[in-house]
Specification:
The structure is a single chain. With about 375 residues, the protein is an alpha/beta fold. It has 2 domains: about 160 residues, Nitrogenase molybdenum iron protein domain (Rossmann fold, 3-Layer(aba) Sandwich); about 190 residues, 3-Layer(aba) Sandwich (Rossmann fold). Helix content is about 45%, strand content about 15%. The protein has a 6-stranded parallel beta sheet, with helices on both faces. The chain has a 4-stranded parallel beta sheet with strand order 2-1-3-4, with helices on both faces. α7 packs antiparallel against α8. GO terms for molecular function: oxidoreductase activity. InterPro entries: CfbD, Nase/OxRdtase_comp1, Ni-siroh_cyclase_CfbD. This is Nitrogenase/oxidoreductase component 1 domain-containing protein.
Amino acid sequence: MHPRPSPIAASLYTLRDLNADVIIMHGPHGCCFRTGRLLESDGVRVLTTAMAENDFIFGASDKLEETLKKANEMFNPKLVGIVGTCASMIIGEDLKEAIENVETEAIVLPVESHGGFGEGDNTEGAIAVLEVASKYGVIPEKEANRQINMLKLATKIEKTRGMAKGKYIRPNFGDNKEEVAKIVLKNLKEGKKVAFVLNAKKETSYLFADVLNVDFKSINKENQPKIIANLDKNIGLPRIREHAKNITKELEKNGISIDYITGGLDEYPITPKKAEDILKENNFDLVIVIGVPHALKIEDINPKIETIAVTDGPRLVEPLRELGYDYVVAELDAHSKTLGTSKIVDSDFGMMIRTISNWDKNK
């Protein structure tokens, strides 16, 4: 019942992950403009055909051809994505015909997605890109199929455990970060067994990894937390693998090692299973699940274990509490804070842990 991300936005992000040089949105100039602006920070040039009222009746293939010509002249791209919108797709604009009419050395991917594409799930837009990318030889068919399977599993998780469960979910900004940070520090100081589970998604991992980027040795040298993370550097689209490499390198530079690798950043729907097995095999006192915590079946973990979820969605706070998490911390604007970066960025919760730790040291 409440608004959710659009398939169009998912198409844009997936083209970004394929390292597209230019994306052309075939629709009105205001369509998905915030996403387009944000993606400019990631080095993607986002253009629009700026369809107007007359174009909704008579079509705008000439505008699309002209925009593709200008993009070719201005940026000399190697990979271009043309993304349909509600306006162009409802009137049946032929993206492929426009591509055939323009001379360019770039690979141009026609992505026929729109706001209500398929079942209307945002992942439908990403799947549309992957299917076209495979057809045009940008990625192997096997990788496209793997990615599509992950996206379908992600949709299932959102519909059964997340913010797409069907009812209206009131935004909630979670528990007091200072109080929750004190719980983490108390457990570490008292020698309790603590585990951090990073189950993050794409570029938002730069924000969530900050919770791991803490000088734990200064808190209790004899009691270091175990770190479980989906940071496999060899899985995913080119940009996604680079994120995992960047984060791992920065953590290692700061003396923080990952004890268990559960998979890649695009495997967040399935990596929790490995994390769950690790948690069950060890007698932890406190578990902090960061990123996409609702994918992990916390209800199947020992109920005596104290649990904390760190999420980026105010509408996920209540579902996470319903799943059984004792505390839920909400980070805001994860996408906007992490677009365009190649380094870990400060998170509110990570900064709070460090701040309180420093207070204790200075007492």
